[in-house]
Structures are given as C-alpha cells and as structure tokens.
Amino acid sequence: MSKGPGLFADIGKKAKDLLTKDYNSDQKFSVSTYSDAGVALTSTAVKKGGLSTGDIATQYKYKNVVVDVKVDTESNISTTFTIADIVPSTKTIASFKVPDYNGGKLEVQYFHDHATFTTAVASNQSPAIDFSATIGTPSIAFGAEAGYDTTSGNFTKYTAGISVTQSVYNASIMLGDKGDSIKASFSTNENTFTVGGQYVLDPLTTVKAKLNNYGKLGALLQHEVIPKSMLTISGEIDTKSLDKHPKFGLAIAVKP
Q1: Strand partners for 211
Q2: Are 189 and 195 in contact (CB under 8 A)?
Q3: What is the band of 108 on the pLDDT scale with cuts at 50, 70, 90?
Q4: Per CATH, is 8-192 categorized as 2.40.160.10?
Q5: Which PROSITE patterns does the annotation name (predicted)?
Q6: Which of 6, 152, 163, 186 has the fewest CB atoms within 10 Å, counting from its CB?
Q7: Does the model's pTM come out above 0.85?
C-alpha cells in the first residue's frame, strides 16, 4: 500500500490512541505463532471485567489474505476476510455475522500517494452505502465521509476532518453529526476534556497517563518481558470519588 494520507477513519487515530489505546479493565491473553511458509496465527482471549465469560478471537494471515474470527459472550460469530491487491493499491474487506446475517458488509479501499477512497455497502434488506475520501500527506490530511440510505434516499451522516501528525505531537478536529458538532475530545451533550502523555523509561518499558476534567485518572505500564512479548498493566481511578473501587486491567501478548 502507498505511504499517503491514510484512510478517513485514521484521522486523529494517533492522538486518540495516546488517550485510549491499551487502557482497559479486562484480562487479555494473546498468543501468536509463525510458520516457515509465512503463515501467522494469533489467538486472543478476553475476560470482560468481573464476568466469568469473555470474547475469543483468532486471526489467520498468509501473504495478502487475513481472516479474523471472533466469538462473543452471546455466541455470536463475526468473520472478516481481508484481501490486499486484488487490483493494485486496493484492499477488499468482506464481513458477516452468524446468526445475524444483516450485520454483513463489503468494503473496498483504494490507496494513492496523495489520496485514499473507500466505499462500503451493507448486506441487509435496506442497504446503506458509506463512502469517504482523504487527501494530503502522512503529516497533514483532509477528509470527509458520508452515508446514504438507498431506501429513504437520504444521507444518514456526513463528517469532515483534518489531522496533523508530527514526530512530537498529533492533533485533529472533526466536524460531525451532519455539521452539528465539532469533536476534539468533545461530545454533543457533555463536554469532556482529556489530557495525556507518554514516556519511554527504557527501550523495553513505556508508561502512559491521562486525566479528564471529571477527575478520572488512568495510567498504564507496558513492558517487553522477552523479545516481541508484551505485558501491559493498566488502571483507572476516580479522584473525585475515592471511595469507589479502582479498575484494573491486565494484557499479555506472546510472540515467538
């Protein structure tokens, strides 16, 4: 794929990942294996909070084909097939759920050095069409997306955004809800302001922390125990209600 501006869905992703990625209150265990033929298999089990059940996911990779299968707590099975370069610079993604076949979708992504385009069609009785476009570079990108309901003939959504990505900071602004809201860590009904940071203690250890205006403090420690195998411990506490129990999460990813 090209080294262009990325997909519209990626706008603001790095800035959002700083505040959300790896923070969790679940227990997660992941194991990856690789064969000499280039086949990669990753299995992940997630226990949701204090529940006795959780999600199980498996990913299979071989050359330009990726297959993801996930079974949730209600025994719903989600399967996604991703094939790259059927046509040069494209990626095709087909997904469906069992037993809810109305949750299926077919998406085609096209990548160029200065632009990307996507089109997605839902596989239900009243199919909706989503499309998006992004122009720019890896450092600065402008994009927009829209959704169209083929039954009613109305646009269900349209969103625009700009993203700036540099080596020391990331920022983005999104104009969403059909132009009714500006999202830069804000929502329509209640405003939330979150600040966060990341610090690399050594080549194997990283710490992150975040605090929002409601007093919720989150922190995590991520350490590479052995090469390619990560241990992540995270937690969250409400500084305005210290009598509430804090949340803790544990994730282990093992790769040979």
Answers
A1: 195, 217
A2: no
A3: very high
A4: yes
A5: EUKARYOTIC_PORIN
A6: 152
A7: no
